[in-house]
Design a protein that fits this description.
Number of strands of chain A: 8
Number of helices of chain A: 2
Distance between the termini of chain A: 36 Å
Largest sheet of chain B: 5 strands, parallel
Number of domains of chain B: 2
Number of domains of chain A: 2
Largest sheet of chain A: 5 strands, antiparallel
Strand order of the largest sheet of chain A: 2-3-1-4-5
Number of strands of chain B: 9
CATH architecture of the largest domain in chain B: 3-Layer(aba) Sandwich
Strand content of chain A: 35-45%
Largest interface: A-B, 17 and 17 residues
Strand content of chain B: 15-25%
Oligomer: heterodimer
Order of helices and strands of chain A: EHEEHEEEEE
Distance between the termini of chain B: 16 Å
CATH superfamily of the largest domain in chain A: Aspartate carbamoyltransferase regulatory subunit, N-terminal domain
Chain lengths: 138, 304
Amino acid sequence: MHIDSIKNGVVIDHIKAGKCMDIYKHLELDKLDCTVAIIKNVSSKKMGRKDIIKIDSEMEVDLEVLGYIDPNITVNIIKNEKLCEKKKLTLPAMIKDVVKCKNPRCITTTEQDLPHIFKLTNAETETYRCIYCESKAK
Amino acid sequence: MKNLMNITDLAVEEIDELIAVAEDIIANPVKYRDKCRYKKLATLFFEPSTRTRLSFEAAMLELGGSVLGFSEANSSSAAKGESVADTARTVSCYADIIAMRHPKEGAPLVASMAASVPIINAGDGGHNHPTQTLTDLLTIKREKGRLHNLTIGFCGDLKFGRTVHSLIEAMARYTGIKVVLISPDELKLPGYLKKETLDAKGIEYLETTDLSAVMPELDILYMTRVQRERFFNEEDYLRLKDSYILTPSKLSNAKSDLAILHPLPRVNEIHTSVDADPRACYFRQVLNGKFIRMALILNLLEVE
């Protein structure tokens, strides 16, 4: 299968196979006017299978959201058809309005304007907890 | 500005300092009677409570300060749909410090982000109740003379009992602590507390359904009520509420210097005939609650 290379844009690589649509949704790529290629189940030496997203436009990618979804993802910035920067991700210390708290007793269920903020409480287990009620992010 | 949301916000040294001030208040009450003159405490209680609200109010009055507030959500602007943040901003204009109880978990934290005066979490749903834990710690210190090298039995509702969760987190920071968890299978301590607190700190613990079998080992027995409001299902509540009732006969093989604590209110989990036993500390515990809240108010208001 042939997919055109991009001139100026972003390639999100090493996405766990099957996870590309989560990223598409979280980064709100549906709102872009440019070409976006979603490539699923690509063969990978390192991962066996992986997903890739190519965005044919320069854009600021929310690295915190990506880091939360999977810190092993790589973000390649392409300029004039050349790889200009390779960004490594880390687990963000805090995420805001990426996931919603599911605890029915949490204050966020009644105070609709509150941001849903989760804090990294255990980097080893990649555990995030709601700052208000301390429930785990699901 | 300082707030108190969770007992773990306080370092062990800070807890020890609060306990020391509380003990000084007990020994020298006259020294403290005007410490908060012209200061006001607002008690914002969005759900009913007798002990905690009156304890905060008594604490402020004994420091020479004044109190204002409400004791149920219906008598506040929350009934008109005002947000917690707006209520906190408004009350900051009237009071020097706020104690807030709210049925929703995290509400006092939201208040602390908006308020311009210190906020004390006076209980947020089933989540945290740090001043109860401070009360428990002061009681243990006064009854046993120490907060280390103790075997503590927690009995009753260990699943929903926030006072149990907080006290376990607090005691896990002292040395030589052993924990005995006594509950029906349905109300066992949540797995994350065992893993993230007890296992993580290397605390020795035992889970059992048999109170009598472990009674001789205990230095402290922390009884809890099976609370109706923590259940979604009435049937489960009725089935489990009488699971563990403490009677004089159950204390026959207990240590002579056992300290029996209970955050109160009790329903029937400690028979009233136990009250006369010198090992029953729960009403002394209530009194300690006032003293530790006095120490906390002084600390948060930075009154020397």
